[in-house]
Amino acid sequence: MPSPQMFAKVVLLVSYFSWAFGGTVLHQMLGNHAFPEYTERGVPSANEFQFIYPENIQDKRKSVGSTYQISVLDPLVINNDDVVTIAFQSDAPSSKDWIAAYSPADIDITTTVPVKYAWCDASADYLTSGKGQLLFNFTNLRADIAFYYYTNGQSKPVLVGKANEVISFKNINEPLRPRMVPTGDYDIFNLLWSSANSATPTVKWGTASGKYTNVASAATSSIARTDVCGAPANTIGWRETGLIHTAPIQGMLALANTRIYYIFGDANTNDFSKEYIFQVPPAPGTQPPKRGTTLILFDDFGRGSSDMAFTWYEYGRPAYYTAMSVGAEVAQGNIDAIYHGGDISYATGYLAVWDFFLDMLAPMASGTLYLTTVGNHESDWYNSSTYFNNSDSGGECGVMTTRLIPMPAPATTNKPWWSYDVGLIHLIGISTEHDYTIGSEQYLWLENDLKSIDRTKTPWVIFGGHRAMYLNSNYGGSVSSDIVVMDNMITNLEPLLYKYRVNLGFYGHNHVVQRHSAVYNKQVVQASRSYVDEVTGETIHIQEDPQATVHFVIGTGGASFTVNYVTPYPSWNEDVFYQYGYAKVTAVNATYLDWQWVLNTNNEVLDHFVLTQSDPTQPWPDRS
Q1: Is the distance from CB of 214 to CB of 205 less than 8 angstroms?
Q2: pTM (two decimals)
Q3: Most buried residue among 139, 243, 368, 547 by CB atoms closer than 10 A?
Q4: Model pLDDT, residue 29
Q5: DSSP SS3 for 337
Q6: pLDDT at 594 over 50
Q7: Other residues' Cβ atoms within 10 Å of the Cβ of residue 421
Q8: DSSP-derived secondary structure for 577-604
Q9: Exposure letters 366-397 (e unless 16+ CB within 10 A, then b)
């Protein structure tokens, strides 16, 4: 992951508004280029590669002669996360000129999109001087990289130059992108990483830095083009994602609340990663010795970029800051798990994005457990297992997410629901993209899970799904609209949450932060009250033993804001705001839970909420 200093080299950003998805979506603009609401194919834009039409490329290099020139400056051999400088010039500079990076270098550019690209006028003086330079940051793509110079925009691109130089990586088999995930067995976690061709993938670990007394072999798998469902994932967006290595880390219950130190790589070549540190979470029903069980929650993340590439910038700078902020929290050793509730990378079928996303994720997912649920941009596809019949996943149909970041048992690609205990908290992850109506397989699983919770062991229950059960929104009408989904979840799922006294529900999909009252069937059961801390001066909102679930929307991990709330607010909606960040949740003890919404740029707490309960084993009043 590149350094924050790279931001100083990126041109000034200005914002603009566009209309999409039943509300205003706040986008940002790099240089002179904005993101249209829809592609020319009529698809709602969710990824910058959707605007490129490789089949329309016209090669005019011979006819333009020396009018356009492009070269790659040193270094030509790079490591993971190094920055490359591209120099270019034109006798006829245009705002429609752009530079694209392709990997492998010899790939047919008429059948695929690039792995990154940038507009030439992101270089400040290009349109006046005809000369410019662009900075590209690259994760190790396991193959070399070539650079092409285009004009005439992206839907009908005209190729006018290609750099003679090719970028290569010092070690294409470098072991990278560690992520630690739960398995369902509390004594075993799985470490996943990626490489190009490791024959004997191995993890070594121990309880002291540099002393790796435990060794585990990894199973290896890969994702084939035939595993995904449709275009662009299996056409112009397809790219090999390398080998996926999965190694079991066993004996975790005995090491709860300690740190383990590990390296991973190829035992045959002795090619291992740097050392990583993992904080082992508390065992179910227990607490860390000097603090409460602490989680980080967010939705709608995406991958960031700190270079001058035209990464969809509202998924770039904000997601990058969230990753840095959460990564710093994890490095302190005080986070027991991260729960990312859907809309993970926003690759939407352009699979090179996953390499960049997992690279950005490594400081977070290497140091604590990383749990996910699927959103529409992971799962939804025509005639598949999903409830919504649309193209939102770009043909990934859940395969990429569930194979690259597996969920705990019993979750599978087509049945992606699970529960998991961390300390005093029982976490539930459902899929709002699959059938959850009364009597469905997912509904029956959820009911059985809820009734089996031992509230003397895990007194707090947090329920997560991508789309929101309660949401202040004006978007209604279609089956996938905010209001229709909300009503369906209230009808089908809320009675279960109430019967088994689920404390908190959190969601995303709508890119906003909203806090709601304790509510049942759209009726306020108890509103929070506010007080000012006499020591800090901070305003704290508190729910004292509410007899209904409190709901939050936290869809601002990195994705562009969805501005479609209504005023006056519904009676159950207490707050709405638009900032990027995450929730930090601490179960202080069995009766006191602390929720802080944290701004990702400076760690300022913008919303502080406290929830208490007197006896988690006692049912709430009958409201039938």
Answers
A1: yes
A2: 0.94
A3: 368
A4: 53
A5: strand
A6: yes
A7: 21
A8: E---EEEEEEEEETTEEEEEEEETTT--
A9: bbbbbbbbbbbbbbbbeebbbbbeebbbbbbb
